[in-house]
Give the backbone structure.
Amino acid sequence: MPIDCEDQELLEGFLQETAELLEKLDDDLVALEKSTDDTELMNRIFRSIHTVKGASSFLGFDLLVRVTHKTEDVLNRLRKGELIVTPEIMDVILEATDLVKTLVADIKGGDIIDREIDETINKLIPLLTMTVANPEESASVAETGEPSAPSAEEAVQPEAAAGTGSGESVTVPQEQQPVPSPPPPAVNRPAPEAPKKAALPKAGEKGGDDLSDNTTVRVDVKRLDDLMNQVGELVLERNRMIQLNQDLQGGISDEVSFGEEFGKLTKRMNFVTSELQMQVLKMRMIPVEKVFKKFPRIVRSLARDLGKEVDLQIFGEETELDRSVVDEIGDPLIHLIRNAMDHGLETPADRIAAGKSGTGTLVLSAVHEGNSIIISIKDDGRGIDTERVGQKAIEKGLITPEQLSLMSPREMFDLIFLPGFSTKDKASDLSGRGVGMDVVKTNIKKLNGLIEIKSEQGQGSEFILRLPLTLAIIQSLLVDVEGEVYSIPLASVLETLRVDQREFHVIGGQEVLKLRDMVLPLIRLEQVFKVQRATEANDFCYVVVIGAADKRVGLVVTRLVGQQEVAIKSLGTYLANVPGIAGSTILGDGRVTLIIDPVGMIDGGEGAAAAR
């Protein structure tokens, strides 16, 4: 049914405020389960639901009002101490919150879909007449929906205790009973069945509860002020440059004084444009908390499904990165957390038998390092059994025994990223289909990121993601290939080497270099881009080692030119899909330089090797 709202601006304000409240609500509810005596947290949760109810009542969203009103009344009893927080009661509240998100998503989509809400409300109603129960009674009510017999003083009709679920409730002193609000006109909206439990986002999905608008970014006013100040500085330097040009053209300035003034202007312009660039970049930056805040709820649900006890620790939520990167890392992190919960962490009994604490620890952290952000997912579980991984890969026909015998431990860790790989013998709702880690690899490669695995059997594993801060302006390494200059994103460069070409070997038609504990495939850029040789063959050359996700290759170049910050420019629709090229940039001397796409280069090298 289309939404009938006369004031579109009012509706948009409601959606924006509600999205912000609901995004924080999951995290707060999970935190409340661990800190049941946190009065401030309980009051914040109550206020969030109360605000959503009041706004939805004003706009006439009846289904939303009914659910939020009952949820608010249950939360009111919890904050008064009339109920005790238990996992079972929290399950009901979380289910109601999910239903609220679904109803708000319907409103945002422009259509109110008729949905069945009575099942969720019927789980909330018994909690309104329950005595200050022991945890066992709370669990019984949450599971069966039937409370124990109330005393004479508490024998109140459920609907009277809860209110009728429509208009704004009146705040009354704690010692008084809440006064029911007058009912609104009845609206009959039969609908499909609501979900019975919180559904976790599947691979490739953004999640139905993501109510934020991906086309806008909220910016701190101070950042806008800083940006305006830098634009003002840029205008002053522009005026100075115009004046210098007029003086030169009019013969007022000689070459010596012009050179000195122009040198000063160049330094000031460099400083101002660098500051301006940083301010614009900061405006696109948002805290990684936007992604992290959904994980306490996911970990809680998985732990209950798997029968495991997990302590999730989150660090570096305030770390900022580009909006475009934030939007893409949600899926990989969900898969890595599910992997750690299902494959990494053991059950309490197994952990105690291994001499560990019954509660497993899962650490999610983010930190800046240079022009990259490092995100780590670390667990203290069983670690990766490389022997089992190798055997599973052979059983599934992904590698041969000969290939396995030549692999280093790090290369064996990387086997889990192969498409179709899984160590689970039987597929479950959580894993066992061999798609999770493949999705991680694909998404990280799309961002020109890197994945590193550290693991010790019996002690735990750590997955480290190295991602660029932004995808628009990058630090790059300029390289010369027989007189042609190419730009390689520095975030993908692991190291550079000066090598004697006589150390190169050919294995299966592929040039390789033995580099410490690994065999590094080589790609000659002059052959890839068909560059004419401009100099005589030299025994020595440079190898730029690049990586994308779990893969590493070496690019053979003539010499290294230097490091430079460049802005990526599109090649247009006609040249959009050139293999191995991500775009172009313009150097200071006006030359156009192609920017190499590490992912395309690595995939192209693998394809060429397979063809041979």
Remarks:
- Confidence is low (pLDDT under 50) at residues 147-212, 607-612.
- The first strand starts at residue 285 and ends at 287.
- DSSP finds 19 helices and 18 strands in the chain.
- The chain has four domains: 8-162, 221-285, 288-468, 473-611.
